[in-house]
What does this fold into?
Amino acid sequence: MAPLRPNWQPSYASGNTQVDNEHQGLFEVLHSVADAIEEGKSAPTIYVLLNYLVRECVAHFANEEALMRASGYPEADRHAEIHRRIAGRITRLLAENAGRGVDELEVVATLFYDAVVLHMLEEDRRFFPYVRPPERCAA
Ligand SMILES: [Fe+2]
Ligand SMILES: [Fe+2]
It folds into this structure.
């Protein structure tokens, strides 16, 4: 199974610099995980990267929730609850796979891909219009 490597597309951008920088940062960590697996790095090295991804993801969720609330996004509570569930799942998965081999960690990486990329493509899109800077008038 080849490691998943998400490619950033311009259509993924929210228009909010902080959100977009953080999303691209998470993509970069996923790339680092894929690189480490492809290069045959050891399980502890891959585990450190996955641990870093979880911490970055949790930090991003907190920042995103603060932005959503500040922007008046009406579904901020529901979105924060989704974050809480994802954060719990990836934290648990990581803990359960401590000391496991590369094959198991590759499965964990795939599940993290779902948590990060699919969440961004589906759920995050709903608040993008609220955090986008206002369009400048053409006049
Ligand atoms: Fe996000
Ligand atoms: Fe989100």
